[in-house]
Specification:
By secondary structure, the protein is an alpha+beta fold. The protein has one domain: phage-related protein like fold. It is built from 10 helices and 15 strands. The strands form 5 sheets. Strands 1, 4, 12, 13 and 14 form a 5-stranded mixed beta sheet that branches. The protein has a 4-stranded mixed beta sheet with strand order 8-7-11-15. α4 packs across α5 (144-180). The chain is flat. The N and C termini lie far apart (78 Å).
Amino acid sequence: MANQDQQFAGAALGGSGSSAFAAPLPIDRLVRKEVSLGTIREMSPPRDHIGLSIAPMLEVGSDDVVFDYLKDVQQDTFAPARAEDAEAELAQKDDVSSVSGRASIIDWALKDKYSASDVTRWREDNLIAAALQGAGVNLQLNGIGNSLQDFNRRVARDDKKRRRALDNRIEQLIMSALWTNQIVYNDGKIRFTVPFGRPTDQTQVAPASALWSAGVTHDPIGDIKAVQDLIWTRRNVRCTRAITSKKVLDTIWKSDRFLALAGGNIANPNVKIDPNYLMAGWGPDFAIDAVQRVTGITFQVYDSVYTTRPIGSATQTNVRFSPETDILFLPDVADLGEVDDTDIGFGKTLTAPHPEGNWSSGFYEWEDEKRDPWIHVRGSGIKAFPVFPYLEYTATLKVLA
């Protein structure tokens, strides 16, 4: 019976037992089917990036960039009086109207290594598939098609993971500068700190009324206008854009200012008001819209995270790019007219050329196959670093504990 099974298998695969592609095979090879259904992914938290919309890429020709920071040379002064026959006073000048800044663009890169056995199996599978197609025989050997697809998918996944890691690094650099007024990096081998020029009393400003998470006595409109007035008094710039978390926005309606509008008696603790159940548009969204109308602010919800997991561990942690407790205030685009006339403007992510990118700026890739034992290396990188010469036009307000 075993011989009959082998003969049947040979006939099914190639017709006659004399065919070069009709080697006797066990019957279970014909019965068993292997179908690749692709990769199953978990549902992901929000991972969108907005950093490059605030500090877009700017191509520069070198890793070291020097720029002049021009202060207000049209500073308003008063001309002094003089007697009719007296000599006019010499105009007063100082050396602080123009200062120079320097930025060093850092190379960020990582790679994946495929062992000699991985590459050898992939090459052999390719050769077998090419030979079968060249022979005109429609033969699907179990494992060859899947192994080719699996290796190609693995390489594609690794490419996307490296690119995602580079995108995450750029987002982290931009958000660190905007929210904390500095970029701090320490991986045990390279360490640096880059401070920016925002005053300390414009970073994590305490609300004028109270923490919004402390109770119902906070004044969202008053707290936001206090920050706006601070920036206007110092810089004559309006803050009309704000980035914050959904958790912060969901706290606005809990203020007694809005609860009173709902028709409840705040003085009577027995009266329970939940704007979620009010009709005619009175609810949490109404409170957010009211704050935006009165202050002229436009809120943008930003809750993106990046995922960390120690090598060999099954525990995955989602880490936010921005604090869930703060509001970041950005200047009005129209008030940045003079600043936008410069190449850097309010802020840019400088990117420099790299030899692996054919001396062009932006993302680059490389491959290496010249090693013993023979392996295959694929890598990705970018030379980039954000610069914010006008970060004093911004502020952060810490509203939740």
